[in-house]
Amino acid sequence: MGIEILPATSDRFDDVRLVIAPKGTNKTCWCLSFRLTATEHLATADDERPEIMRELTERDIAPGLLAYVDGEVAGWTGFAPREQMGRLARSKTIQRIDDVPVWSLVCFVVKPQFRGQGVARELLSSAVDYARSHGAPALEGYPVDPEGGRLSPTNAFVGTTRLFEDAGFTRAAQTTSKTGGLVRWIVRRDL
User: Considering the entire predicted model, what is its pTM?
Assistant: First the structure.
């Protein structure tokens, strides 16, 4: 099995759609819930979401990375400089821990047939490299510690503390945010 990671650019938008809206519906997050403010997110119609993501893929810095397994799109991770994440920048539950202009990694999606094959690990490793190559001083994630249990696929989008710690991140602070009833952590890796 060969895993290739590529930036989510406009020429790969159809692959972004296949991963984050696999059923062809626009009634998904489209990895926008942290990018928009809460007010913007609520005001955005379902049919506007794909176009917003398409516009993000046209920027100089990609909104995320795509994983391909033997040429088939298998996964996604979404990130951006924190100040470009409207809801996250204003969050009262996932607060800034200092003034470092970090990039925030907010989402993982791995298609069911590719889970358990290291796709998320490759996406995270490549996100570190991508952020570093674009001048980010540090990369943060906001995962949960499943405390020996398993996360449901619905809640796994945030990642686990183990996934991040295995990639060289350290726990910087506990948040008051929860996913699936589990506390989310701020994990950081200086670049």
Answer: 0.95
